[in-house]
Design goal:
By secondary structure, the protein is an alpha+beta fold. The protein has 4 domains: 95 residues; 73 residues, no CATH class; 85 residues, Helix Hairpins (Orthogonal Bundle); 147 residues, Heat Shock Protein 90. α6 crosses α8. The model has no long low-confidence stretch (mean pLDDT 77). It has a 5-stranded antiparallel sheet. A 5-stranded mixed sheet has the order 9-11-12-14-13. It has a two-stranded antiparallel ribbon with strand order 1-2. Helix content is 52%, strand content 20%. It starts with 6 loop residues before the first helix and ends with a strand. Its main location: membrane. Pfam families: 2CSK_N (PF08521), HATPase_c (PF02518), HisKA (PF00512). Keywords: Kinase, Membrane, Phosphoprotein, Transferase, Transmembrane, Transmembrane helix, Two-component regulatory system. Its EC number is 2.7.13.3. This is histidine kinase.
Length: 455
C-alpha cells in the first residue's frame, strides 16, 4: 500500500515553505531598498562634489579662473577602482578640462538645476550629474557646464553590506520561527498521537467508546465519528451474536424432531405410517424454513439500509392485493381503507417486511376463532395530527391485557396454533424503531386486535 506524506510533514511543508519564500522575497526586497537608498546617498555625494567644483571656477573678465588645486583633484582620483570622473565645458559640450569625456544629459538641463542620469564610461555603468552655471556680462552671456560621474560600485557595496548585516538576524529569526512551528505542530498533533496509541493498545474485541476530554474540537469530532463507528460495529456484532444464539436455540428442537421423524420413518414398513411421518417431516421443515426467514428478517431490520421517500399507503395497498388470494382461500375479507397516497422517509424493504408480518399475523391468528361473524382484516393508512399511522385490525378474539404486555418479546407466542415462531411483532417493533416511530397493540371494538405503527 502506497503511503503519502504524514500529516505532520505536510503541515511542516506548508508552513515552512511559505516562510522560506517570504524570507527569500524579503531578502530580495531588502536588497532593492538598500540599492535605492545607496543611490540616494550617491546622489547626495555627487551633489556636494559638483557644487564644490562649480565654486572653484570663477569668471575673470572674458575668461575663467579655475582654482582647482592638485589636492582636490587627487581626492577625486584617489580610488582607481571607484574613481570620480569630471568634466568642465563651456559652452556646454565643449571640453575645457577634466579627466573624462562625459556624455551630456539626455534631457538637457536648466540653469542652476541638477540633472542626474545614467551613462557608461568604458562599458561601465556610471551615475552622473550635470550643473549649468551662467557667467559673463549682459552683452556676452556664457554658460558653464560642470559634470561629475561615479560608478555604482560603492552603491552595490553598501547594499550588499546592508543586506548581509540584515540577513544574519533574519536567518536566526527564521530558524527560531521554524523551531516554534515544529513545536506547535508537535503539540497540536499530540492528541492524535494519544488517540493512535489508544487504538493500538486495544484488542480487536474491545469496542468500548473512546474517552477524549483535553483535545481540540476537531479531534473531538474525530473521536465522536470513531465512537459512532464503534457503536455501529458493536451493534452489528451484537445482532450477529443474537442471530446465531437465536438460530442455534430455536433450530435445535425442530431439527431434532425432523431427525426423530426420519428415523421412525426408516424403521416403518407400513406405507401409510411412512406417509404420516413424512407429513410431519414436511410440516417441521416448513416451520424451520419460516423460523429461518423470520430470524433473517429480524437481523436485517437492525442492519444499515438506505432510506428514501416511500409511499406507505400505496405499499400497504400492494401488499394487501398480493395476499388477497390467500385471504380468499381462508374465506377472510381482507381490505384496505384510508388515504390513497401518503409518503414518508424510510426503507421500502423494511416497511414491506413490517406490513407483511402484521397482515400474516392477522390472517394466521386473528381470524382463527371467530364467534359466528364473518372474519375480516382491515389495513389502513391515515394521518393523525403530525403523525402517519398504519394499522392492521382484525375482528378475532384478540388478547387480554396480560398477553398484550408480552407481544413484543422474541419467541413469545399467544397461540398454540402451528406455523408461528413468535418473532413477527418483534420484527415490526425493530422496524418501527429504525424509522423513529413506535408500535402499539390495542383491543379493537367491539372485538379483535388492532396493531398500529405510528411514524
Amino acid at each position: 500500500m502506497k503511503h503519502g506524506l504524514s500529516l505532520r510533514r505536510q503541515l511542516l511543508l506548508w508552513l515552512l515553505l511559505p516562510q522560506l519564500v517570504l524570507w527569500l522575497g524579503g531578502g530580495i526586497l531588502t536588497y532593492r531598498v538598500a540599492l535605492n537608498y545607496a543611490e540616494k546617498g550617491l546622489d547626495q555625494s555627487l551633489t556636494q562634489s559638483v557644487r564644490s567644483l562649480a565654486r572653484q571656477i570663477k569668471p575673470m573678465g572674458s575668461g575663467l579662473l579655475v582654482d582647482f588645486p592638485k589636492a582636490a583633484q587627487a581626492i577625486l582620483e584617489e580610488d582607481p577602482v571607484d574613481r570620480v570622473s569630471y568634466m568642465v565645458s563651456s559652452p556646454p559640450g565643449k571640453f575645457l578640462l577634466g579627466n573624462q569625456k562625459i556624455a551630456a544629459p539626455p534631457s538637457g538641463s536648466a540653469l542652476g538645476q541638477l540633472v542626474f542620469y545614467r551613462m557608461e564610461i568604458d562599458a561601465k555603468p556610471m551615475r552622473a550629474v550635470a550643473l549649468d552655471v551662467a557667467y559673463g556680462d549682459a552683452d556676452n552671456p556664457q554658460i558653464l557646464r560642470v559634470q561629475l560621474a561615479k560608478s555604482y560600485i560603492a552603491r552595490e557595496r553598501i547594499a550588499k553590506e546592508l543586506v548581509s548585516d540584515l540577513f544574519a538576524p533574519l536567518l536566526l529569526l527564521g530558524l527560531a520561527l521554524s523551531v516554534l512551528v515544529y513545536a506547535g505542530i508537535r503539540r497540536g498533533m499530540a492528541p492524535l498521537t494519544r488517540l493512535e496509541r489508544q487504538l493500538k493498545q486495544r484488542s480487536a474485541a474491545d469496542l468500548t467508546p473512546l474517552e477524549f476530554t483535553t483535545a481540540p474540537t476537531e479531534v473531538h469530532a474525530l473521536v465522536d465519528a470513531i465512537n459512532r463507528l464503534l457503536a455501529a460495529v458493536r451493534r452489528s456484532m451484537s445482532q450477529e451474536k443474537r442471530f446465531i444464539d437465536d438460530a442455534a436455540h430455536q433450530l435445535r428442537t425442530p431439527l431434532a424432531g425432523l431427525i426423530n421423524q426420519t428415523e421412525l420413518a426408516l424403521d416403518e414398513s407400513d406405507a401409510a405410517l411412512i406417509k404420516a411421518r413424512l407429513h410431519k417431516v414436511h410440516a417441521g421443515a416448513q416451520r424451520s424454513a419460516r423460523l429461518v426467514n423470520q430470524l433473517l428478517a429480524l437481523a436485517r431490520s437492525g442492519s444499515e439500509v438506505p432510506m428514501a421517500q416511500v409511499d406507505l399507503a400505496q405499499l400497504a395497498q400492494d401488499i394487501a392485493r398480493e395476499l388477497s388470494p390467500r385471504a380468499v382461500a381462508m374465506k377472510v375479507d381482507l381490505g384496505y381503507e384510508g388515504q390513497a397516497h401518503a409518503t414518508m422517509h424510510g426503507s421500502a424493504t423494511l416497511l414491506r417486511e413490517a406490513v407483511m408480518n402484521l397482515i400474516d399475523n392477522a390472517l394466521r391468528y386473528g381470524v382463527s376463532s371467530q364467534a359466528g361473524s364473518e372474519p375480516t382484516v382491515t389495513v389502513s393508512v391515515h394521518q393523525e395530527a403530525a403523525h402517519l399511522v398504519l394499522a392492521v385490525e382484525d375482528n378475532g378474539l384478540g388478547l387480554n391485557q396480560a398477553q398484550r404486555e408480552h407481544v413484543f418479546e422474541r419467541f413469545w407466542r399467544g397461540s398454540d396454533l402451528p406455523g408461528g415462531c413468535g418473532l413477527g411483532l418483534a420484527i415490526v417493533q425493530e422496524i418501527a424503531q429504525r424509522h423513529g416511530g413506535q408500535v402499539s397493540v390495542t383491543q379493537a371494538q367491539p372485538q379483535g386486535l388492532r396493531v398500529s405503527l405510528q411514524f
